[in-house]
């Protein structure tokens, strides 16, 4: 592809890792890479943010004295040419002096008839050539995925084409050379989504916000396509993407073969493992990982009592709980409560109320018929003491003013149980909130906001700007749906 081209990368390949990777790729395509600028050097490839007065004084001016016909291009020109498998037109990639510094340099760069307005037109044409915000930012993504996956897998273009599970076709519209149609089997979409999720998590944790935003854009495209394909029962989907993004998706489908993603997956899995321990958040989990810890045994000496109990009974806590076992725990709590006061009301919430076959933990609402919050707290203290005495409750992780987060034991296994104390008058809103799912709750809150209302676990309120909130409903769950203009939705469909 690049036969006869003589490239010099700035910063030089001696100091820039990404340029080392670029140089190897274009060298496979026939380009000659020069470690120093000489009379044969045809192009200087540079990132626009690296172009400053130092670049002109130390690189460009001396280069023009050696070869006055040398061209300075944005290094994305190489990336996009490789991704598109053809040499892109250099319009819009030429780096000119008055883009970055004043014109008072010793040897101005040849503008090829372009003025500032022309350059702005080119920039606009380039930006609008992409079909959405993700594609506008694809140059960032090409550095992050394209080159890293190339380096890790060490495939050349011929092998890529031979082994690719997808076919790419040029678009026939006027912008056909600016984006491609990538056809992906529906069965492969999950692997692409998982790879993107892991990449996003890795970039976010390491502070690469720009890459993370770009990956999120691409993630949104794929997830939307996946939902449409499943809804319409299609065997494959067609995505219109810029050439480099089409290329990146292809790399992601065989990401499990790369060393880079294996490292990402190891980190992701380890962070997830650490965060399954009670009291460990993402920051602490990353800190443990950075120190070289890879197992729960490694971090055991450095966690508090809650963490040690969580690690000791980790297999019990992470195991899904069958509906039958949830009912057994719930029945024993109800039995203990019934012996104390007939007004105590208990409701099993979360995925159990939604009819799921198994649950992650046991969520229970504790309230009393016409009871005040003070009376409810008082009765719960007695119930909790009784539960420990009967060895139903075995550990307390957290005990707040309105909740108890702990562990219960029926037979031999420890299970996580959360008991939430709810005032009688707030029962409907609390039942709605603690039933879930999270996605359903977000939908309901969004609906309320659009109607100038506010919905949370305590009730549905007016939310007119400049006015005091007014309670509309909190006791009757069904009435909350009615006020929001929605039909009753069974918990199993939430």
3D structure, described in words:
It is built from 20 helices and 17 strands. The strands form 5 sheets. A 5-stranded mixed β-sheet has the order 9-11-14-13-12, sandwiched between helices. The chain has a 4-stranded parallel β-sheet with strand order 2-1-3-4, covered by helices on one side. α6 crosses α10 and α11 crosses α12. It is elongated, with a radius of gyration of 30 Å. The two termini are 55 Å apart. About 16% of the residues have low confidence. It is an enzyme of class 2 (transferase). Keywords: DNA damage, DNA repair, DNA replication, DNA synthesis, DNA-directed DNA polymerase, Lyase, Nucleotidyltransferase, Nucleus, Transferase. Its EC number is 2.7.7.7.
Could you say which structural class the secondary elements and strand pairing correspond to? alpha/beta
Overall number of structural domains:
4
The N- and C-terminal alpha carbons lie at a distance of 55 Å
Please give the number of β-strands: 17
- The main sheet orders its strands as 9-11-14-13-12
The rough form would be described as elongated
Q: How much helix, percentage-wise, in residues?
A: 40-55%
How is the main sheet built? Answer: 5 strands, mixed
Number of helices: 20
Note the beta-strand portion. 15-25%
Mean pLDDT: 79
- Give the uncertain stretches in residue-range form: 97-119, 121-177
Q: Using the CA coordinates, give the radius of gyration.
A: 30 Å
Organism: Starmerella bacillaris
Enzyme class: transferase
GO molecular function, one term: lyase activity
Subcellular location: Nucleus
């Amino acid at each position: 592809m690049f036969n006869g081209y003589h490239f010099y990368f700035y910063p030089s390949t001696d100091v820039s890792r990404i340029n080392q990777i670029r140089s190897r790729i274009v060298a496979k395509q026939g380009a000659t890479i020069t470690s120093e600028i000489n009379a044969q050097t045809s192009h200087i490839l540079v990132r626009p943010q690296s172009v400053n007065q130092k670049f002109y004084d130390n690189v460009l001016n001396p280069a023009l004295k050696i070869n006055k016909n040398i061209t300075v291009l944005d290094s994305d020109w190489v990336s996009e040419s490789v991704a598109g498998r053809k040499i892109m037109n250099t319009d819009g990639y030429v780096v000119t002096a008055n883009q970055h510094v004043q014109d008072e340099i010793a040897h101005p760069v040849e503008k090829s008839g372009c003025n500032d307005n022309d350059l702005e037109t080119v920039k606009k044409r380039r930006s609008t050539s992409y079909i959405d915000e993700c594609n506008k930012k694809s140059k960032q993504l090409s550095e992050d995925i394209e080159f890293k996956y190339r380096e890790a897998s060490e495939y050349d273009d011929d092998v890529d084409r031979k082994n690719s599970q997808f076919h790419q076709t040029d678009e026939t519209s006027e912008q056909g050379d600016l984006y491609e149609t990538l056809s992906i089997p529906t069965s492969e979409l999950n692997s692409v989504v998982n790879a993107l999720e892991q990449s996003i998590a890795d970039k976010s944790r390491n502070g690469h916000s720009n890459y993370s935003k770009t990956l999120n854009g691409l993630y949104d495209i794929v997830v939307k396509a996946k939902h449409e394909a499943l809804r319409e029962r299609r065997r494959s989907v067609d995505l219109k993407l810029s050439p480099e993004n089409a290329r990146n998706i292809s790399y992601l489908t065989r990401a499990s073969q790369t060393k880079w993603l294996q490292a990402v997956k190891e980190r992701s899995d380890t962070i997830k493992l650490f965060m399954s321990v009670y009291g460990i958040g993402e920051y602490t989990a990353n800190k443990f990982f950075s120190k070289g810890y890879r197992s729960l045994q490694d971090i055991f000496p450095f966690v508090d009592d809650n963490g040690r109990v969580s690690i000791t009974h980790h297999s019990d806590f992470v195991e899904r709980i069958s509906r039958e076992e949830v009912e057994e725990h719930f029945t024993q709590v109800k039995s203990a409560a019934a012996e104390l006061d007939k007004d105590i009301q208990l409701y099993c919430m979360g995925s159990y109320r939604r009819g799921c076959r198994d649950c992650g933990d046991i969520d229970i609402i504790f309230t009393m018929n016409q009871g005040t919050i003070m009376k409810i707290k008082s009765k719960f203290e007695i119930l909790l003491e009784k539960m420990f005495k009967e060895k139903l409750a075995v550990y307390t992780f957290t005990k707040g003013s309105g909740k108890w987060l702990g562990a219960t034991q029926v037979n031999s296994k420890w299970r996580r149980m959360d008991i939430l104390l709810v005032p009688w008058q707030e029962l409907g809103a609390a039942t709605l909130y603690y039933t879930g799912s999270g996605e359903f709750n977000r939908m309901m809150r969004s609906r309320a906001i659009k109607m100038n209302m506010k919905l949370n676990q305590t009730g549905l309120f007016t939310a007119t700007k400049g006015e005091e909130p007014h309670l509309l409903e909190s006791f009757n769950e069904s009435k909350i749906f009615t006020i929001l203009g929605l039909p009753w939705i069974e918990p199993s469909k939430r």
